[in-house]
Amino acid sequence: MSRWAVVLAGGVGSRFWPLSTPERPKQLLALVTDKPLLHDTVDRLSAIVDPPHTLILTHASLTKAIRKLLGNIPRENIIAEPRPAGTAAALTWAALSIEERDGPDATMICVHADWAIGDDAGFREALLRAEALAVKTHSLVTVGIVPTRAEPGFGYIQPESETGDPSRVKRFVEKPDRIRADEMRNNGYLWNSGIFVWRVGDFLKEVEKHTPELAAALRHRDSSDAALFFGSVVMPVSVDVGVLERSKKVMVVPGDFGWDDIGTWAALSRVRSKDEFGNVTSGDAHLLDCADNVVHADAGQVVMYGVNDLVVVTEKGLTLVTTTEKASDLKRLVESLSAANLENS
Known about the structure:
Blueprint (H helix, E strand, L loop, with lengths): L2 E6 L28 H9 L8 E6 L3 H7 L8 E4 L4 H17 L4 E6 L2 E3 L2 H18 L2 E6 L10 E4 L7 E7 L4 H9 L3 E10 H11 L4 H4 L7 H6 L7 H6 L5 E6 L3 E3 L6 H4 L8 E3 L2 E4 L5 E4 L4 E4 L4 E6 L2 E6 L6 H7 L2 H6 L1
Parallel strand pairs: 1-2, 1-4, 2-3, 6-10, 12-14, 13-15, 14-16
Antiparallel strand pairs: 4-9, 5-11, 6-9, 7-8, 7-9, 8-10, 16-17
Helix pairs in contact: 3-6
């Protein structure tokens, strides 16, 4: 059996503005360790998947930076998507590429480049359990995270079994409100992590059966022209909506290894070390009588006194101040700024 890893490394990460930009998106930033998130992701997988069997899916504008960052990954394994077409199209193109090289029995471990993982060994063990289940049952397997809090920002999975063992997926729930999230956590639901494992052939059969958005693109499955494939996608669709929610062959493996989605500045308070008052700081920052703040000082010094639950970011002469609650809505802020504002940031 041949094992492949596919890392989704597209997206801008606008909720990490002004540090994150189209030229240097979130996955290329050192937000959790002293290495960029993408580097940490590939390094975490390297114990079970070697570089020649690792694919990176990204935007054409980022391939040069990613090649520089990941020098051990073959150039042909860094795949540029000609246009955004959703994760269903991206993972289908990756599956077709793997099938061409290694055949339909190859397994495919799919992860995102912007996560924090507390227990790397536990993470890899969960991936291998999911792989064994996918091979045995010919199912599409996802790893559902055992929730540690009621998180309305995540999707949820309801397993058919409440025993904590691998089981069929009963349904997916997209980003509930906080009250509903608390109820689901208490009722055995799992976080939808976006970790997927399957045999390439099994996945492609389900795409052909359930995803009409990709039907035209699949007519070019024997072509090596990515532009032709992605240009034929009728409508961008996520793999969750376009494949998993429609398939009857989806199973979930529970995982508990300190997974977190690094989606906003506020998320850093969960994955980085804090001072005794819950403040997370990077750069030159002086805080007095402050609690639960996130501070990133690119240059100069940030001084804060008597304030709580704020996000303060200085970057290239620009200062962002918001609350940890509103930090999840920075995309709206960025869209409201003029082109001149963005060029100067």
